[in-house]
Design a protein that fits this description.
136 residues; 6 helices
């Protein structure tokens, strides 16, 4: 986060990322987990990194933009569609277990692995972007 601050990333991004980190490690009780809120924080950060930093465009985040961002950063996965599949999973988790609560989703639960999965993608994109574009 210090590196991001030195490279003039928005203070709001750093606040949201930090909030996600704090919520992620907060104590978990049977009826109180802040992992869903952490997921939303990290997802917002992912949207910003992909759309605002890597692709430099506005619009709604989607799996095709996630894949384009990975390609722009030089990702060469064994399966060319794996970034798209990862994004589909992240977006589906956000919609089904975190952001909405409809009748079908009333019992949906966020697995802590889902939170770690999202954060690992976010951190990797940030690190690669900062290495490839240190002055951006």
């Amino acid at each position: 986060m210090t590196v991001m601050d030195h490279h003039d990333w928005p203070h709001r991004f750093i606040e949201i990322y930090q909030r996600g980190c704090e919520l992620m490690v907060s104590p978990v009780a049977p009826l109180a987990s802040l992992h869903e809120e952490a997921y939303l924080c990290f997802f917002r950060c992912l949207e910003y990194v992909v759309m605002g930093k890597i692709l430099n465009r506005s619009g709604q985040f989607s799996e095709k933009y996630f894949q384009a961002a990975c390609e722009r950063l030089g990702a060469r996965p064994v399966d060319p569609n794996s970034p798209r599949k990862a994004a589909v999973s992240l977006i589906a988790t956000r919609g089904h277990a975190v952001a909405h609560m409809t009748k079908k989703q009333a019992n949906a639960r966020l697995d802590p692995k889902d939170l770690a999965h999202l954060k690992s993608h976010l951190d990797l994109l940030c690190r690669v972007f900062l290495r490839k574009h240190p002055n951006a």
